[in-house]
TrEMBL record:
Protein known as: Acetamidase/formamidase family protein
One term of GO molecular function: hydrolase activity, acting on carbon-nitrogen (but not peptide) bonds, in linear amides
Pfam families: FmdA_AmdA (PF03069)
Organism encoding this protein: Candidatus Fermentithermobacillus carboniphilus
């Protein structure tokens, strides 16, 4: 369906997946350049409605629904899909849960607790009379892998649950096309989340995401990439932060060297003084790290070539 003005295609939250796989059935076919509005459920699939609804009452089979997938006409294996995030709108209630033995500090949590957070005029009203400015972001955004099924709660080279704060309004996400049509799906919006997501969640909420996609023909990237106004970010996930960091740095060096023509040694030197390594999340099945490469370092050149 389209909106009242006929200018965008609506991807309903009634169409969700819980795993990315090459055999997914798309819910809509779209052309590159069309405006798409994804309606998303919260990461709990709407199962938490009151503060009495604790995490132990949530069905795991309905965790992290991603709306889609969408078939992008013209996208073929060996291409790169660019997803320009034009807008993110979140609902007026967010959810946070604390769960013993879950998250980075679960050993310190004794009791289950659910907190409903009022979101009003771009502000999140937290416990203890703390009011925080929202910065809506997308937790899950991905495409089909070439083979196998990857739960939407797990990040990887296909994207998925990267929980990376720079995936927000105004940024562009670049993901590999592994199957015809790419099969794009997204969800798990956060009104606000800190690097690490140490509790196990941010301020989880439902909402809408408006995007435009484009297909970059015969462009192959070694990892997911996010572009903002001032920087590129490379992203990688592994079972440990050490391994994720090592794999990410090798891929980043490859990309920067290819874009600039610098030697591997010179590229490493430049990244050592201008690259910014950061943690995205430490609570998913795989841990996610990112490297910021300021555009000023690249002198007008793009990492995505």
């Amino acid at each position: 369906m389209t909106d009242a003005r006929g200018q965008s295609k609506i991807i309903s939250a009634d169409h969700v997946i819980y795993a990315f796989g090459p055999e997914m059935t798309h819910c809509k076919r779209v052309l590159p350049g069309e405006i798409l509005v994804f309606e998303t459920q919260d990461c709990f699939g709407g199962q938490i409605k009151t503060e009495e609804d604790t995490f132990d009452k949530v069905g795991w089979d309905r965790i992290n629904p991603a709306t889609g997938p969408v078939f992008i006409e013209g996208a073929e294996p060996g291409d790169t899909l660019s997803i320009e995030i034009r807008d993110i709108q979140v609902k007026d209630t967010g959810i946070m849960v604390q769960v013993p033995k879950m998250g980075a500090l679960g050993h310190l949590i004794r009791n289950q607790k659910t907190v409903l957070v009022t979101i009003r005029n771009g502000l999140a009203h937290m416990p203890n009379d703390i009011i925080l400015e929202c910065r809506p972001m997308i937790g899950v955004i991905g495409v089909a892998p070439a083979q196998g099924c990857i739960p939407t709660g797990t990040p990887g080279p296909h994207g998925g649950n990267m929980d990376t704060r720079v995936i927000t309004k105004g940024s562009t996400v670049y993901l590999p096309v592994n199957v015809p049509g790419a099969l794009l799906a997204l969800g798990d919006l956060h009104a606000l989340m800190g690097d690490g997501e140490v509790l196990i969640c941010g301020i989880e909420t439902a909402g809408t995401v408006t995007v435009t996609t484009h297909v970059l023909k015969r462009t192959v990237l070694p990892c997911p990439v996010v572009e903002t106004e001032s920087a590129f970010y490379t992203i990688w996930s592994e079972e440990s932060l050490d391994r994720a960091t090592g794999e990410l740095l090798e891929r980043t060096v490859q990309l920067v060297s290819r874009a600039t023509g610098w030697s591997i040694e010179d590229t490493i030197m430049m990244l050592s003084v201008k690259g910014n390594l950061g943690i995205s999340q430490v609570v998913d099945p795989l841990k996610t790290v990112r490297m910021e490469i300021p555009k000023s370092l690249l002198k007008g050149k793009s990492l995505v070539i």
